[in-house]
Amino acid sequence: MRLRDGTAVRAWKNPLGVDHIFLADPDGKMIYGGFVGWIHSEGLNQAISQMRSNLT
Question: pLDDT by residue (tens digit) across 22-49?
């Protein structure tokens, strides 16, 4: 998804089921990349949903 300020938010789940999140500036340069453990996946999904509702 793309936020109102142009930041791109991308999520990916690796083959082991670990969720990753990446943020890129409007020019496509990565500004953040990280992952959460399995027990925190639902929290990440909730945060992404909230971002979609409030920031797009």
Answer: 999 999 999 999 999 999 999 999 999 9
Complete domains list, the chain, with CATH? 8-55 (3.30.160)
Cα separation, 42 vs 19, in Å, equals 10
9-12 contacts, C-beta under 8 A, 24 or more apart: 9/48, 9/51, 11/44, 11/48
> What DSSP state is assigned to residue 22?
E
30-36/8-13 β-pairing: unpaired
Q: Is the dihedral of CA 32, 38, 43, 45 positive or negative?
A: positive
